[in-house]
Amino acid sequence: MMLEPSIDKLQERIKSKYTLVTLSSRRARQLTLTKDLQVENPKSFKNVGMALEEIEAGKLHLAKD
User: Fold this and answer.
1) How many CB atoms within 10 Å of residue 60?
2) CA distance 52 to 57
3) Closest CA to 41 of 49, 1, 30, 23
4) pLDDT-derived band of residue 5, with 50, 70 and 90 as boundaries?
5) CB distance 55 to 16 below 8 Å
6) Of 12, 14, 19, 45, which residue is most buried, by most CB within 10 angstroms?
7) Residue 3 above 80 pLDDT?
8) Residue 36 pLDDT greater than 60, yes or no
9) Is 49 helix (H, G, I), strand (E, B) or coil?
10) Is the pLDDT assigned to residue 53 strictly greater than 60?
């Protein structure tokens, strides 16, 4: 079974796996409450998968201080 998006593609956008997990889990919690999706026609039906698709599409970024 191939998971989409792949970890390699995601790490092109966010280098740290820890940061990737943290960002996607926070976004998944937001999606649970708001259902305000930033990508059209997501492949995943789970919130974490949709959050990862948003990262891959370049819709989510890390806030820089």
Assistant:
1) 19
2) 9
3) 49
4) confident
5) no
6) 14
7) no
8) yes
9) helix
10) yes
How many alpha carbons lie under 13 Å from residue 19 in its C-beta half-sphere? 13
Q: Which amino acid is at 47?
A: N
* Long-range Cβ pairs for the range 20-24 (8 Å, 24+): 20/55, 23/51, 23/55, 23/60, 23/62, 24/48, 24/51, 24/52, 24/55
| Res 58: pLDDT | 92
What's the rounded Cα separation, in Å, for the pair 34 and 20?
21
Q: In angstroms, rounded to a whole number, what is the distance separating the alpha carbons of residues 49 and 28?
A: 8
Predicted pLDDT at 38: 92
- What share of residues in the chain are helix, strand, coil (percent, to 5)? 55, 0, 45
